[in-house]
Amino acid sequence: MPYRPPSFPSPRRWARLSGPTGFTLIEMLVVMTLVALLLTLAVPRYFHSLDNGRLNVQRQNVATMRDAIDKFYGDLGRYPDTLGEQVTKRYLRQVPLDPVSESSNWIIVAPQDTTLGNVYDVQPPPKVERISAEAH
């Protein structure tokens, strides 16, 4: 007898031999339920960490502006009249945007002696809740 190499089944025949392919509806529902359950645990933690990050950036921005005000006073012997003056004199590259309220309307605290300038200190702007268009 001549040698005959082993024959492999055709793809159609292999599919019939190996059984049904794909996932059942029940298997898909179980997987989707587990994914949804994991997301309910992970998503709140994600948004909480975003809020903490914004607060940290806000604290750092305030500290940077206060440091620039102190350097301005140390160099010129007076406080700046506006926050923009710090930018024009290159004590700041730009007035930072507050990441919490998403505005650059910082609260300016004037010194007791107003002849020394107008910006003694800065505080973060109040957080404004955004009203969605659906509420109207």
Structure description:
This protein is mostly helical and 136 residues long. The chain has one domain (25-126). It is 49% helix and 4% strand. It is built from 3 helices and 2 strands. The protein has a two-stranded antiparallel ribbon with strand order 1-2. The N and C termini lie far apart (88 Å). The model is unreliable at 132-136 (pLDDT under 50).
Using brief descriptors, characterize the structure shown.
49% helix; single chain; two-stranded antiparallel ribbon; 136 residues; mainly alpha
Detail the topology: elements first, then pairings.
Layout: H1 11-18, H2 25-76, H3 83-88, E1 107-109, E2 121-123
Antiparallel strand pairs: 1-2
Question: Percent helix among the residues?
Answer: 40-55%
Largest sheet: 2 strands, antiparallel
- Summed over residues and divided by their number, the pLDDT gives a mean of 86
The count of strands amounts to 2
Number of helices, counting only DSSP H or I runs of 4 residues or more:
3
Return Rg in Å: 32 Å
Shape verdict: elongated
Note the quaternary state here: single chain
Distance between the termini: 88 Å
Total domain modules: 1
Give, in spatial order, the strands making up the sheet with the most strands.
Answer: 1-2
- Hey, roughly how much beta strand do the residues contain? under 5%
Could you list the spans in which at least 5 consecutive residues all have pLDDT below 50? 132-136
